[in-house]
Amino acid sequence: MSRKKTVKGKAAGSSSSSSPCAGTGTGTGTGTGSPSGRGSGKPRTVHPSTASISSSEFYDISFKVMLVGDSGVGKTCVLVRFKDGAFLAGSFISTVGIDFRNKVLNIDGVKVKLQIWDTAGQERFRSVTHAYYRDANALLMLYDVTNKSSFDNIQAWLTEIHEYAQQDVVLMLLGNKADATHDRVVKREDGERLAKEFGVPFMETSARSGLNVELAFTAVAKELKHRSMKEPGEKFMLQEYVNKEMKGAGCCRS
Ligand SMILES: Nc1nc2c(ncn2[C@@H]2O[C@H](COP(=O)(O)OP(=O)(O)OP(=O)(O)O)[C@@H](O)[C@H]2O)c(=O)[nH]1
Ligand SMILES: [Mg+2]
């Protein structure tokens, strides 16, 4: 299934993404079509009086989040699940280039806009996506628990991140397709071990069931908000929050 794109909000180098997960190329956001179009990658503050009329556009702070990982791990589906609460199964059609969607979250009374960039996992688009890394405030690295090589390639994704992203970028490792119990080849403990080795928070997700999808983005939004607002006396520990809120595969919806 594909959706019509509007010119506004379409990223440079992107083209139609007709993933079964409804594609992320709806141009619902306010992107400028340039990786650095919003400035230096620093969070942006918008006051309501200067915000546009659409209520979804009202926000206090804004951050860029990027989804990376091998082709087919479920990046587009995770984003569609988060944005629309839907999972549309069907034949897999790879994302072409890069695209984004916006979602505003209410984090402890503060409206936090996440501009979420969905990248193509295919090697041939790597040069396009590299240009966007440096503006990202957070990067979610995804692998597929039913695909060992996508797990083994996380090391390579991390190397790219270190090369192209900002040093203080918020990172998280997600093992997606946790619903696919019969096809699983990567154990949850393997994901935990790898995340520990890299010093990044980890959880398993499922775009199909919704497991932990909302949590992944909320946790990142909380961390970014905390960092940008530097709330005195308040501490936010991303890993602790994730450990407390995370649900196991086979459990409930997010
Ligand atoms: N069982 C299951 N299948 C999933 C899940 N997420 C995605 N899929 C399937 O995996 C395939 C790939 O999903 P996409 O989201 O398009 O993958 P992608 O990472 O965006 O791939 P590229 O755009 O090529 O980088 C599709 O057939 C989806 O239906 C999940 O959580 N569980
Ligand atoms: Mg995709």
UniProtKB/TrEMBL annotation:
The keyword Amino-acid biosynthesis does not apply. Its cofactor is Mg(2+). Residues 1-50 are annotated as: Disordered. It catalyses: GTP + H2O = GDP + phosphate + H(+). Residues 9-23 have a biased composition (Low complexity). Keywords: GTP-binding, Hydrolase, Lipoprotein, Magnesium, Metal-binding, Nucleotide-binding, Prenylation, Protein transport, Transport. Its EC number is 3.6.5.2. One of its GO terms (biological process) is protein transport. One of its GO terms (molecular function) is G protein activity. Belongs to the small GTPase superfamily. Rab family. Residues 24-40 have a biased composition (Gly residues). InterPro entries: P-loop_NTPase, Small_GTP-bd, Small_GTPase. This is small monomeric GTPase.
